[in-house]
Design brief:
Distance between the termini: 48 Å
Number of strands: 0
Shape: elongated
Order of helices and strands: HHHH
Structural class: mainly alpha
Largest sheet: none
Number of domains: 1
Radius of gyration: 15 Å
Helix content: over 70%
Length: about 110
């Protein structure tokens, strides 16, 4: 089994970075926008959104670059490598969105 290096460039890493970057742009603002039922809430925290975008992009690259090639080799398909990388890239997005949801709900 091929073990990709840490931060190595491959198709899974690119898919993970793309999924992480798009998701990172929405991860912070989406829960407050849903709770407040106000689309403008997506853009209330631009600096925090930028930080989430950067973090999700980098972590998505690393996780997608590790998960994607392993799944692609196991199933002998480049499409599975893309999907595995994208799913790996969504992991930090989900974690940041859950954190944002937790911070948005009154305690």
């Amino acid at each position: 089994m091929r073990k990709p290096g840490f931060g190595e460039s491959n198709l899974g890493a690119v898919a993970g970075a793309v999924a992480g970057s798009f998701g990172g742009l929405l991860a912070v603002g989406l829960p407050p926008a849903i709770l407040d039922r106000n689309v403008k809430a997506l853009f209330h925290t631009p600096i925090l959104t930028f930080i989430a975008w950067l973090v999700c992009l980098c972590i998505g690259w690393v996780i997608g670059g590790q998960v994607g090639p392993r799944l692609g080799e196991k199933f002998q398909s480049a499409r599975v490598e893309y999907i595995g990388g994208a799913l790996g890239g969504l992991l930090p997005v989900v974690l940041i969105a859950l954190w944002s949801w937790y911070m948005s709900v009154p305690h």
